[in-house]
């Protein structure tokens, strides 16, 4: 009998890059950026056919519990895991692994960020099934999903797969003038050679031209016991405390999942805590129209631009307006001679930003907090 698959959806992050639409009480994963549903609801819908609702676990914070309930009203309350404080992805995934093990002997865990865009949901599910099949023969393996790059990108981490002699022959043919397309690569799982941190532009250009290099999608697949065993080996400072916290209650009968206990767990990503150290990591290449929606400019790439290069939501009338993102709520946005500008109009904030400085919005949010305007963040 095959192991059941649990979908572990990480929904505790507080993104600031979509401010002023995203706020403390309504982070990016709860925004309806790409359609009629929130990114969180889209993520849960994407795993239909892989895991039933009873095996969808959402990890979030206590402050965001109400937002999760509003977006996923049919999700059982027992399937919402509440972190007292955010401690990054490694502790969150470990907490979910223990919860899944309380329900099944050794389930598979499909770990997904709650705030990404996937245009090809069917292709995504096919890739997951390929990973599941691989884990049948390699139950101790840790599987990551790598996206084929479509451009030199400095905002993503990269994965390089280990090259084989067959890969080398293909590379030599490529040097002679043949350029392999995405469909030319055998649909199989590859051993990971290295993880590469977010590169500068020159390195990103070099990586874009390399064979066997992918963007790290942040989507993972593994057996619960294999993951916890590897975490205990490579990050015992996380695995040990989480195991105690997940064990249930203290000697006095109180819940072990307290803010004080959880805050003592190191805040480390699963990539740094485990994947960059382990030797049994494998990558499934995917071509699924993926974006991590890292900010307003990446949203424009997903939604597409009109003939003037603009992305418009709501009412807009403009003359000579090009290459801009113009998002209105209730009021009309009117513009003349505007280029390379982001305009986001909300009930209480009008945000203006040059598109090439969109990443600086985090600094602006920090400045608002320093100025005593935390209620707007």
Shape: globular
CATH class of the largest domain: Alpha Beta
Low-confidence stretches: 168-187
Total of domains: 2
The CATH architecture designation of the largest domain is Alpha-Beta Complex
Number of DSSP strand runs: 17
CATH topology of the largest domain: Spore Coat Polysaccharide Biosynthesis Protein SpsA, Chain A
Describe the overall structure:
The chain is built from 12 helices and 17 strands. It is α/β, with parallel strands linked by helices and 377 residues long. It has 2 domains: 287 residues, Spore Coat Polysaccharide Biosynthesis Protein SpsA, Chain A, CATH 3.90.550.10; 81 residues, no CATH class. The protein has a 5-stranded mixed barrel. The chain has a 4-stranded mixed sheet with strand order 12-14-16-17, covered by helices on one side. It has a two-stranded antiparallel sheet with strand order 5-11. Helix 3 crosses helix 7, helix 3 packs across helix 8 and helix 7 crosses helix 8.
């Amino acid at each position: 009998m095959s192991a059941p698959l649990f979908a572990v959806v990480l929904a505790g992050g507080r993104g600031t890059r979509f401010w002023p639409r995203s706020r403390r009480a309504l982070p990016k994963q709860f925004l309806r950026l790409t359609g009629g549903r929130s990114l969180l609801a889209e993520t849960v819908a994407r795993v239909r056919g892989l895991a039933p609702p009873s095996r969808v676990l959402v990890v979030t914070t206590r402050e965001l519990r109400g937002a999760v309930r509003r977006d996923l009203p049919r999700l059982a309350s027992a399937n919402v895991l509440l972190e007292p404080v955010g401690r990054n992805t490694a502790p969150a995934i470990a907490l979910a692994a223990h919860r899944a093990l309380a329900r099944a002997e050794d389930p598979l865990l499909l770990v997904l960020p709650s705030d990404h865009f996937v245009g090809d949901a069917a292709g995504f599910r096919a890739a997951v099934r390929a990973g599941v099949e691989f884990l049948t023969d390699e139950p101790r393996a840790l599987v990551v999903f790598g996206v084929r790059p479509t451009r030199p990108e400095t905002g993503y981490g990269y994965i390089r797969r280990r090259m084989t002699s067959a890969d080398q022959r293909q590379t030599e043919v490529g040097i002679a003038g043949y350029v392999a397309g995405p469909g030319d690569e055998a649909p199989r799982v590859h051993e990971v050679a290295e993880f590469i941190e977010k590169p500068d532009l020159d390195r990103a250009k070099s990586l874009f031209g390399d064979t066997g290099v992918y963007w790290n999608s942040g989507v993972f697949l593994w057996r619960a016991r294999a993951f916890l065993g590897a975490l205990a080996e490579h990050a015992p400072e996380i695995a040990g405390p989480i195991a105690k916290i997940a064990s249930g209650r203290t000697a006095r009968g109180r819940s072990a999942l307290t803010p004080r206990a959880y805050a003592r767990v190191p805040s480390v990503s699963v990539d740094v805590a485990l994947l960059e150290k382990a030797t049994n990591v494998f990558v499934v290449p995917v071509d699924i129209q993926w974006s991590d929606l890292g900010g307003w400019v990446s949203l424009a790439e997903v939604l597409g631009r009109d003939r003037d290069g603009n992305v418009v939501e709501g009412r807009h009338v403009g003359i000579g307006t090009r290459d801009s993102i113009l998002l209105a709520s209730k009021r009309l946005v009117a513009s003349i001679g505007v280029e390379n500008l982001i305009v986001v109009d909300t009930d209480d904030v009008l945000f203006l930003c040059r598109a090439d400085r969109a990443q600086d919005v985090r600094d602006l949010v920090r400045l608002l907090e320093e100025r005593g305007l935390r209620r707007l963040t």
